[in-house]
Amino acid sequence: MAHKASDRILDLHNFGxxxxxxxxxxxxxxxTFLSAKTMFDTFEGNTEGCYLYSRHSSPSNLYLGEAxxxxxxxxxxxxxxxxxxxxxxxxxQLCNAGDHIVSSRTIxxxxxxxxxxxxxxxxxxxxxxxxxxxxxxxxxxxxxxxMIYCESVSNPLLEVAxxxxxxxxxxxxxxxxxxxxxxxxxxxxxxxxGAHIVVHSLTKFINGTSDCVAGAVCGTKEFCLAxxxxxxxxxxxxxxxxxxxxxxxxxxxxxxxxxxxxKHSFNAQFLSERFExxxxxxxxxxxxxxxxxxxxxxxxxxxxxxxxIMTIDVGSLxxxxxxxELMQKENLGYLAVSLGFYKTLFSAPGTSTSSEIPVxxxxxxxxxxxxxxxxxxxxxxxxxxxxxMKNCMLKLDILARDKVxx
Length: 406
Ligand SMILES: *Cc1c(COP(=O)(O)O)cnc(C)c1O
Fold this sequence. Notes:
With about 400 residues, the chain is of the alpha/beta class.
């Protein structure tokens, strides 16, 4: 087996029906059987390679699943219609009414809202903890705790989770560590570091073209089959199924993920170093000033860098909004949520993607009003981008002219 995840993805070859270099796209919701017995066995989950109904599995979804398992180094992977479809299925599968979850408090807004509000209906409670404080993580575990949940690099504050240490705590208590690796595909391999289940929003870097939403659960065969069980699987029964046509297009995009991640990271590293030198409050795990810098270094694959996301705190929401509007006017990127696009995307998370989090809680997390989250694009001449961004900041007095060496 190839040592590198990128080569493991490229080594997969599933030819199309007529020898096409890409696998054929399955264009059917249902499949015929030559014998009634095989149909029965397939229902029971016994017949590998047989397809029953496309909510259960389809050839195109299995091909994409194979690539995701190759990416994360897990036994297998299931794909879903969105990242939230993957995350909610995992949580519903692992928890019964009355159970408890220990989760990082700095997570994607949708996941936070699901854990904080939605699953109350099932009397499932969550303790939100500072994931970098291992003692508080362990102290939060109680008898009904069914999982530890975190993001390898968190949204939007870019906290780095110590996956090895967290997996040791999980193992000690006999519960799974579930890691959302959306921000750091290829650079961090949570399963290799001890995570039991890895979830993704494919919508972001993995697909990279901002043309669809999709998700994945990477884990053991046992868990992924349980998710698909026709009688009790949360994946199968909650019905968040990815369409085959989309699975096929995401698979094609995944083959360039390694090149894109290198460029996203290179550009984000370049800009974060320059803007920090200019005196701005920049948060990027690739900066030695970042509290998770050494930890990230110790658990990443260096050539993919520290990722494409950085934040800059420009002091106030008014300044943040003015800067984002000006940068969009100058064609430096788009004022939009989401990430992983070829074009730089920026948003103020406090009022957008993290707006599910109450204002007081945003404050204790360090999520300030003037924070802009950047998903740095694939600009080829990043010096030019830096010069143009700096001009926008000078115009709005975000950078003082006397502080900048022109
Ligand atoms: C976007 C995102 C999600 C949700 O994924 P969708 O595809 O939008 O459902 C989950 N986790 C993280 C870290 C994300 O950035």
